[in-house]
Each structure stands twice: as structure tokens, then as C-alpha cells.
Design a protein that fits this description.
This protein has 407 residues and is an alpha+beta fold. It has three domains: 1-57; 63-204, Apoptosis, Tumor Necrosis Factor Receptor Associated Protein 2, Chain A; 221-406, Potassium Channel Kv1.1, Chain A. 41% of the residues lie in helices and 21% in strands. Strands 3, 4, 5, 6 and 9 form a five-stranded antiparallel sheet that branches. Strands 2-10-7-8 form a four-stranded antiparallel sheet, with no helix packed on it. A hairpin with a 2-residue loop joins strand 4 and strand 5 (100-107). Helix 8 crosses helix 9 (258-265). The longest helix is centred in the last third of the chain and has 16 residues, at 307-322. The termini are far apart. The relative contact order is 0.08.
Length: 407
């Protein structure tokens, strides 16, 4: 509540007329023995006494805290889990959020309360003698993007360890809705379940020491930069890419890429040059590159599925290498490494070697060395291209696999 000094507050520094009159009357009473003044003095004294009050302002605050945690549960060999039977499940490792133990249960053939043709997911509180209020996002991960399926929205629930119904939340999912899109939800027969849970801690009431802290909103500079790119306001350079044109700001490009800095502000620049032609790059890739330069994040690639999404990330890695945008290059390597399979590991290895992606190269070599599907890898066109164009890389992979087999 605001701290306000009232006009008649004892803390006011401006003398009131009534107080001045009272003081004068009191002085007159001392100087004159006249009784006629006494009633006036007594009246003024009572009025002053009634107004000389103090106000004590106290304050308390109720504060509720949250603790957030994420657990990812991978079901390798999803197709082999089917047929276990209704209400049969596999359980994740125990994970702790907010001081409480949790686990995820996966029912390949559904829980007891599930309809026919459904599988089920369950989030369970394992801590004993506990009652917890939490909200969460819970569902199947979309391959490539890492986003949760949109079947489940954020929910809030009070978990109690007393009974099965109160200690867990079970959700049934129609199998066909996911099995119909294997490249999106079941790459390499791998089902990934993700749970983001926020535990609401008990409220705490306390008396704050003072109002010295002012809440500061989060940074929104990236939002403003994204709007700057979209509005093209004060854009001073144009790029021609595959028949499409893109407007941008030289200073932003130079700040983010030493290659753009050299092209736009270096000694070899043309002072009258306002349009640059980019060769060997698709418009969609350049658009995604500009988005990252301005916002430090990848654009929404949810419209792309399977191979199209993977191909976009490959092209972005090449673009990041060309313009020396190291963070984008590492993000692309990470995504490619997480989505390796028999069909793409050889081409990804060649790409990693060509663009000096040592960490991605090591992951590819390790995948080939530890894979039990070497014959399938050899049968791919990517392997044939790798053997022809990058024989030394292939030799490294085969030598490492040979060492692992002997170990």
C-alpha cells in the first residue's frame, strides 16, 4: 500500500492556522491573569490534542515459488513393446523436481481405463506422505523440431500419495495418430516422451524489509530486432537470392558475421553497392539465416517434416560455415547429431568433414563404429559417395569400428 502523508499528519512541516492561534492563546494566558482567556485556551488545547495522532503502517507479503524440471524418456524399439498387454507398462528412471520424486510410465497397449486402440502415458508422484500442486506439459516429442505434440495442453493438478488415482495422471493416446507419421514421431522405431513439470511450492508469508526492489521486465531486444527485419525500416542493403530479394541492415549483418562485415565495410567494398547477389543458396535458407542473425534463434520449421526438415538444417550449417556464424553452426551440428540414422549417417559424415565440424564428425564415426547395421549403412548411396569422395574419412570410421569389435 502507498505511503501517504495526510494534511493533518504529525509529520507535516507546514504549520496550521489553528495551531498558530492555539499557541498565541497559550502565550496570552501566561502573560495575562485574565480569566476571560482561559475558556478559549482550554478549547484550543483539546482541539490540538485530538489532532496530534500517529499512524503506524505495517506490511506483509505472501510469496509463492515455483521449481521447474524436464525429463525425457526414450522408448527404443517401440514396435517390440506392443503386445505386452493392457495395463502393463515400462517405467522411466526416477527424477526429482521441487524436492519430490517423479516417474513416467508408458503403457504400449493402454492402461486399464484406456479405450481400445490406445496407448497411455502416466506421470506419477513417487514420494510418500506428500501432496503437491503442479502444472506441466506432457506428451510425445516431434522428431527434428523437439516440440511436443499438440494433443496435450498445459494442465494443473494436485498430486497426493494416498491413492493411485490421486498420485498419478494418465492420458490415453490413439496409436494410429502417431504410427501414421513414423518420420515425425517414430524415427528408427524410437518414441520420445517429454515432461516439463513445474512444482508450486508452499506459500510463505513474511514482512519485507522495505520496498527497495523494483521489478524489471525481461529483455525484449530480440523481439524489436525481429520487427526491424520484418518491417525493413531504414534497410540499406538488398540481397538477390534465387530470384527473390531480401532487404536488411548492414550494421546488423556486420555485427553478427565477419564475412558480411568485410563485404559491406571492408576496403574492397563498393561504396555505391546496394544489392548483393548470393549464389548457391536457396531463398528459404537465406531467409532462415537472416532470421537467426537478427534474433539469435531458428525460425519455426514446424511446417517441414522428416527429410525436408533435415535438409534445411544441412543447408543452414553450410550457410553458417560460409558466413562464420559459429553459434548457428553448432546448433545445426547438434540437431543433425541427434537425428542420425542408417540412411543419413554417411552423407552427414561427408558434410561434417567438408565444413570442419569435428564434433559432428566424431558423432558420425561413433555411430558407424557402434552400429549393428553396418551392412545397411554400406548399402546406402551416401556410403558410396563417401567412399568415392572422402576415402580417408571412411577409413577412420572403419578403423574405429574394428577397434570396438576387438575390445
Amino acid at each position: 500500500m502507498p505511503w501517504t502523508l495526510k494534511p493533518d499528519s504529525p509529520w507535516s512541516l507546514t504549520p496550521r492556522h489553528s495551531d498558530t492561534a492555539a499557541a498565541a492563546a497559550a502565550a496570552a494566558a501566561v502573560l495575562s491573569p485574565s480569566r476571560a482567556i482561559l475558556p478559549r485556551m482550554g478549547s484550543a488545547s483539546k482541539e490540538t490534542a485530538s489532532r496530534c495522532t500517529t499512524e503506524k503502517v505495517t506490511m506483509s507479503r505472501c510469496s509463492t515459488h515455483e521449481e521447474k524440471g524436464t525429463h525425457i524418456f526414450e522408448i527404443a524399439g517401440y514396435s517390440l513393446k506392443k503386445g505386452m498387454g493392457v495395463d502393463k507398462f515400462v517405467r522411466s528412471a526416477t527424477f526429482t523436481v521441487g524436492g519430490y520424486d517423479w516417474s513416467i510410465k508408458f503403457y504400449p497397449d493402454g492402461a486399464a481405463e484406456s479405450a481400445e486402440g490406445c496407448m497411455a502415458l502416466s506421470l506419477e508422484l513417487l514420494s510418500s506422505n506428500a501432496e503437491v500442486r503442479a502444472y506441466f506439459d506432457f506428451g510425445i516429442v516431434k522428431h527434428g523440431s523437439g516440440l511436443l505434440s499438440r494433443a496435450f495442453t498445459q494442465q494443473t493438478k494436485t498430486f497426493s500419495s494416498r491413492t493411485r488415482n490421486t498420485r498419478q495422471l494418465t492420458m490415453s493416446i490413439l496409436k494410429s495418430s502417431f504410427e501414421a507419421k513414423p518420420t515425425t514421431y517414430l524415427p528408427n522405431d524410437l518414441l520420445t516422451i517429454k515432461c516439463v513439470i513445474v512444482v508450486i511450492k508452499e506459500s510463505r508469508v513474511y514482512q519485507p524489509a522495505g520496498r527497495s526492489e523494483i521489478e524489471v521486465p525481461p529483455s525484449n531486444i530480440l523481439e524489436h530486432l525481429a520487427k526491424l527485419l520484418e518491417a525493413k525500416e531504414e534497410a540499406d542493403v538488398t540481397f538477390s537470392v534465387g530470384g527473390e530479394t531480401f532487404e536488411a541492415h548492414k550494421i546488423v549483418l556486420a555485427m553478427r558475421s565477419p564475412v558480411f562485415k568485410a563485404e559491406l565495410f571492408g576496403p574492397m567494398r563498393e561504396t555505391s553497392m546496394r544489392c548483393l547477389t548470393i549464389q548457391d543458396m536457396q531463398p528459404a535458407v537465406f531467409r532462415a539465416l537472416l532470421h537467426f542473425i537478427y534474433t539469435d534463434s531458428l525460425p519455426d520449421l514446424d511446417d517441414l517434416e522428416g527429410d525436408d526438415n533435415y535438409e534445411m538444417i544441412r543447408h543452414l550449417l553450410v550457410a553458417a560455415d560460409k558466413y562464420v556464424i559459429d553459434r548457428l553452426k553448432m546448433i545445426c551440428q547438434n540437431i543433425l547429431a541427434k537425428n542420425l540414422d542408417v540412411e543419413n549417417v554417411a552423407t552427414t559424415l561427408a558434410l561434417a568433414d567438408q565444413h570442419n565440424c569435428d564434433k559432428l564428425k566424431d558423432v558420425c564415426v561413433e555411430f558407424i563404429a557402434s552400429s549393428d547395421k553396418m551392412d545397411d549403412v554400406v548399402a546406402t548411396q551416401g556410403y558410396a559417395n563417401l567412399k568415392r569422395s572422402y576415402p580417408s574419412v571412411l577409413i577412420d570410421a572403419l578403423e574405429k569400428r574394428s577397434r570396438s569389435l576387438k575390445a
